[in-house]
Amino acid sequence: MEFHSLLPNPMIIDYYSGLDSVVHRLHPVGKLVFSLAMVLATVYLQNLRLILVLSVLVWLLFFVARLPLGRLLVWSALPAFFVVSIVIFLPLIGYGWEYILKILVKGMTAAWYMFLLVLSTPTMSLGKYVSRILPSWLSDAFLLSLRYIFYFFGEAQKTFIAANVRQGEGIPWSRKIKLFGSMIVNLILRGYDKTEKVYVAMKSRGYTGRLSLVSDVRFRLRDAAYLALAVALPLFLVYLERVVAL
Amino acid sequence: MYFLLIILLKVNKVRIMAHIHLPDGIMPLEWCALWFAVTAGILLVSLYMIKRKGASQRQVVLFALLTGLLFVIMQIPVPAPLGGTHLNFTPLAGILAGPWFGAIIVFLINVFSAAVGHGGVTVIGANTVVLFVEISLGFGVYVGLKRYLKRRDVSAGLATFVALIAGTFAAVTIVTFSGGFQQFQTALVNFLGNPLIPIPQIFPHELEALGEMLLGWLLEPVFGPIMEINVYYAVFNAIIASTNSFSAFLAAMLPVNAGVGVIEAVVTGIIVETLAKTRPDILEESVVVEGPMD
User: Fold this and answer.
1) Which residue of A195, B43, B231, B271 has the fewest CB atoms within a 10 Å radius of its CB?
2) CB contact A189 to B (< 8 Å)
3) How far apart are CA A32 and CA A43, in angstroms?
4) A203 — phi, psi (to 5°)?
5) Burial letters for B177-209: b for 16+ Cβ neighbours within 10 Å, e otherwise?
């Protein structure tokens, strides 16, 4: 048994999000707005050439951010699988290949903009700003969930490595499924125990229902420029599609 | 297209999944906005129910645990024929957390998943609606069956299977009805014009006629007085036209999801039974308890 080899491991995401580049130094909110604006533009546009402009742009940004292009291609197989699983039926109901290709490019381009966001922004830094728009208890739960994702990835890796080492070959499927169920229960029980300890530790350190986080990143001129691009580029592409009829 | 899917399955070790996260671009933005509005409604109701019943700080930490745990175990492949499969565990979330906390859990899981390309950003609303159907049915059917069946594993397994089948119906319905009525009218014309394309007829003609009649009885009292009759018939005909696309999608997705649903039902039954023996307090404890927010 193994983890989904195509899903970016949170530890790997953490590693790449901590690198130094022009893109990494931008403000988290600016990068969030930019990625969301590009995703919206990708979905809204119908002209395949204009959508491809956005696709090329994101790969340029991957290069500028010094992200691993080969690995990104491998990770792209997962969103590609989801897109293909849907579009595979479209020929049966009369949709043409151009439409199907457009859906494929849209799905992949949108996923790539989210990869750009998470691989260039530390998770907790991003989570901090997202949590500010939530009610206080939900904001704490959101931030703790992020922390638990990292914890459970580590625990699950250890559990499954140990199981692979011990269980050997030739075990019937029924036994494997039972073992899998037991391992999940093990994770749940350890998680609950961890939760009790975490809660006691938080209370003993003065937790009163609101987590305190590190200081904010300063918003600079380059961030304003990035935000301006996030607004201007989609509008320009929509103008090209609608007015110029490209 | 089929060869591409086979290549993705075999060469890149992508496994069959119990859940298909809808990707971006699959529906127009206005439909994405509609599903976000529906999700916002579900979340508001959930927040209201949680606040009304009260939740302690400990419950908040527990809820965060379930969110993180479920996101991680959704990524783990279960050993099964054809290389293994990925499970939803949303019915399990419903059993452990209830529908109200469960709604927020699946929303956050969809946000985290979209961030890593596991589903689209603009369709977080639609994905959340699908998973909420699974969570609430998983919870409701489990609670209902628990009273009559002595065995928790059987109750949990049946609840899981029913919830996942309902989720498949919900996903197919959302995708087919969100394409825009004009597209599906066109699809129907294309289908009728090309009899060589074999579309499985899910619903017999008599059943479709009956459905048409029932839809008329249901929609007429609501739409008749408030809409011009020709608009009502245009909407009605578009819904009927969509059923052909609906049938095609359902015929393709249901067998796969049903097969994987059986595996998930077995695994969920094992998990619930083991929890009942080792930590029955976890199963009995609803995440929402009486008491004010600390």
Assistant:
1) B231
2) yes
3) 17
4) -65, -40
5) bbbeeebbebbbeebeeeeeeebeebeeeeebe
Query: What is the rounded distance in angstroms from the CA atom of residue A83 to the CA atom of residue A103?
Result: 8
Chain B CB contacts of A94 under 8 Å are 186-187, 189-191, 194, 197
The average pLDDT across A221-244 equals 88
A window 86-115, beta carbon within 8 A of B? 86-89, 91-95, 100, 102-103, 105-107, 110-112, 114-115
Q: What is the pLDDT of residues A185-198, one digit of tens each?
A: 888 888 888 877 77
CB contact under 8 A, A93 and B117: no
| Whole-angstrom distance, CA of residue B243 vs CA of residue B250 | 10
Mean pLDDT of the region B4-19: 46
pLDDT digits 0-9 by tens, B116-147? 877 888 889 988 999 999 999 999 999 999 88
- Cα-Cα-Cα-Cα dihedral of B143, B84, A109, A26, to 10°? 80
> How far apart are the C-alpha atoms of B221 and A184, rounded to whole Å?
50
Element (H, E) at A145: helix A136-167
Chain A nearest-CA residue for B197? A92
Which of A42, A74, A176 lies nearest to residue B24, judging by beta carbons? A42
pTM value is 0.79
Question: What would the mean pLDDT of A140-144 be, rounded to a whole number?
Answer: 80
Kindly indicate the confidence band of residue B185, based on its pLDDT and cuts at 50, 70 and 90.
Answer: very low
Give B185-188's long-range contacts (Cβ < 8 A, gap of 24+).
B185/B237, B185/B238, B185/B241, B186/A94, B187/A93, B187/A94, B187/A95, B187/B241, B187/B244, B187/B245, B188/B241, B188/B244
Which comes out higher in pLDDT, residue A100 or B1? A100
Instruction: List the single residue in A with minimal CA-CA distance to B74.
Output: A4
Give the mutation candidate from B16, B72, B177, B245 for the A interface (greatest A CB count, under 10 A): B72
The answer for B 156-215 residues in CB contact with A (under 8 A) is: 175, 186-187, 189-191, 194, 197, 199
The residue type of B259 is G
Domains with residue ranges and CATH for chain B: 23-185+238-284 (1.10.1760.20)
- The set of residues, in sequence order, having a beta carbon less than 8 Å from that of B167 and lying 6+ positions away, is B19, B88, B90, B130, B131, B133, B134, B137, B257
Instruction: State whether A88 and B26 contact (CB < 8 Å).
Output: no
| B14-54 pLDDT tens trace | 444 445 567 788 777 888 888 899 999 999 999 888 888 77
Q: What is the Cα–Cα distance from B154 to B146, expressed in whole angstroms?
A: 9
For residue B77, the cross-strand partners are B86
B75 close to B86: Cβ distance less than 8 angstroms = yes
Residue A243: CB atoms within 10 Å: 8
Average pLDDT of chain B is 71
